[in-house]
Amino acid sequence: MVRTRFAPSPTGYMHIGNLRTALYAYLTARRHGGVFVLRIEDTDQERNIPESVAAIYKSLEMAGLEFDEGPGKDGGYGPYIQSQRLSTYKEHAQKLLALGAAYRCFCKKEDQIEDGENPNRRDPCRFLTQEEISGKRAAGESFVIRQRIPEEGSVTFTDAVYGEITVENSQLDDQVLLKSDGFPTYNFANVVDDHLMSITHVMRGQEYLSSTPKYNLLYRSFGWEIPEYIHLPLIIKEDGTKFSKRLGDPSFEDLVSMGYLPDAIINYIALLGWSPGNDQEFFTLSELEDVFSINRISKSSAAFSFDKLKWLNGEHVRALSQDAFHALAEPYYPAALMTYNTRKISELLQVRTERFSDIPDMVAFFAAVPDYDVELYRHKKSKCDPEISLKILKDTKSLLEALKTWDNDHLFIALKAFAKEFGYKTGTVMWPIRTALSGIPATPGGATALAEVLGREETLNRMQAGVEKLENSL
RNA sequence: GCCCCCAUCGUCUAGUGGCCUAGGACGUGGCCCUCUCAAGGCCAAAACCGGGAUUCGAAUUCCCGUGGGGGCACCA
After folding, report:
1. Which helix (H) or strand (E) holds A172?
2. Which residue is the nearest neighbor of B12, CA to C1'?
3. Is cis: bond before A79, omega within 30 of 0?
4. Which of A73, A242, A245, A299 is an active site residue?
5. Annotation marks residue A245 as catalytic
6. DSSP for residue A198
7. Which residue is nearest nucleotide B24, judged by alpha carbon to C1' distance?
8. What is the DSSP string of A180-196?
9. How many Å apart are A79 CA and B30 C1'?
10. Which bases of strand B have any atom within 7 Å of the beta carbon of a protein residue?
């Protein structure tokens, strides 16, 4: 039975790399009919931000990554919050102590060598006699429990994406397993929990690759079976630097509030470091569940491209049903638009929307025509200029006043006929009208589509305003 | 400093010794369509880090450089 886990620490927001780790773990579980576990790694008292646990749930839910086991969803391996498992870690640390695979270290934090090679290897506590230890404990000295790395030898393991990796024991430090406050370190809790929770596939960022041998030594001391390791390449920015909240780089939730669809974000990050092996790029989550495989994960880090995300988001937007798009788009419409048929506006917008946050700017002209220069009536390709525009606006106004049915098709037929009758290009007639109706050079939809939304009265008013503007300037 | 990892168009990637005059996608440029803008269609420019070795034959295997990234916390 495949069991994967996502094990975030509640120290802040859900960043992109985290979300991808969660996604790959989720997909691997789904693909093999396994179980996806959520475990909260809140072992750092200092950095814990309690509210961020809620943010984790919210992000996973938005992303559609439903966990099978986790806090509030016990599958027999709980609790799933590490701060509630303290006794378990203590027990296991004791066992390691008894095995000689760990030792108590009484050094003060401040005494630690700043940097330089392997400060902990020279840790004097490693060589303390039983009497010395008893003495220090009797004196009430606080201590941490450190892993005793063997002097000689090396550790070799196989990673599913990076292959065989060997590290000399001399390169490994006697890492702290249990802190003086009784909490385990990530390094220890992770190993204990992954085993106790029967995790079969451990997915995590590539930054853990070089410390994996230490974990394997722990597994070996306990006599536990080593899980399958899947280390994931880093996600970086296009300038090659790391994502940083501090520098204003967006988290998953930020991207959603920037107007990207969760489905599109998931689709995009699935492709950052993994390829389906064919040309398909558009995937729904359930499609990914069917085709994802860890042996197609790449080794080198991937740069996050907002351009490509934008494009992919547009693809997802266009794949939405009209109803779904309308429901998503409506909150972005200014209140002044509610007098119009917003459903029609949504129809115009769907094919042109790359990000929902762009919508307010795209539709602002419906509420009010901005102040514009009469030169806007000059358009070479449409063979249009202010003089012709004035004439056309005047002539078509009366035509439209009399139009029986006010919708896009009838408007278009009438205006096209007008153009033909007087020898104009269609564009020459449409350009002035569209300009008068919008006051901007590019609009979602042509003159007749805008006229339909605006309605007869508003359309004629705006055309009249255009006429006056042109008369005043000519 | 020591250790580990990585290296194909600007970016994401396909490629597992001959199918590669290296394919796709985003972005960029052009054309078409067209009542503006999008969407859609077509076309174009654009890459195997360098050097050795193995081989009849290397993007693909090996070695050495170079470049980049990661790790060396009582953080995860």
Report:
1. none
2. A272
3. yes
4. A245
5. yes
6. T
7. A279
8. TTSPBPHHHHHHHHHHH
9. 62
10. 1-8, 10-15, 23-27, 34-40, 68-76
User: Measured CA to C1', what is the nucleotide nearest A299?
Assistant: B6
Query: For every one of its 474 residues, what pLDDT tens digit does chain A have, with 9 covering 90 and above?
Result: 999 999 999 988 899 999 999 999 999 999 999 999 999 999 998 899 989 999 999 999 999 999 999 999 999 998 999 999 999 999 999 999 999 999 999 887 655 554 444 444 567 888 888 888 888 888 988 999 999 999 889 999 999 999 999 999 999 999 999 999 999 999 999 999 999 999 999 999 999 999 999 999 999 999 999 999 999 999 999 988 888 877 888 999 999 999 999 999 999 999 999 999 999 999 999 999 999 999 999 999 999 999 999 999 999 999 999 999 999 999 999 999 999 999 999 999 999 999 999 999 999 999 999 999 999 999 999 999 999 999 999 999 999 999 999 999 999 999 999 999 999 999 999 999 999 999 999 999 999 999 999 999 999 999 999 999 999 987
pTM: 0.94
Closest C-alpha among A118, A25, A39, A112 to residue A78: A39
Nearest nt (C1') to A205 (CA)?
B70
Using an 8 Å Cβ cutoff, are A200 and A3 in contact? yes
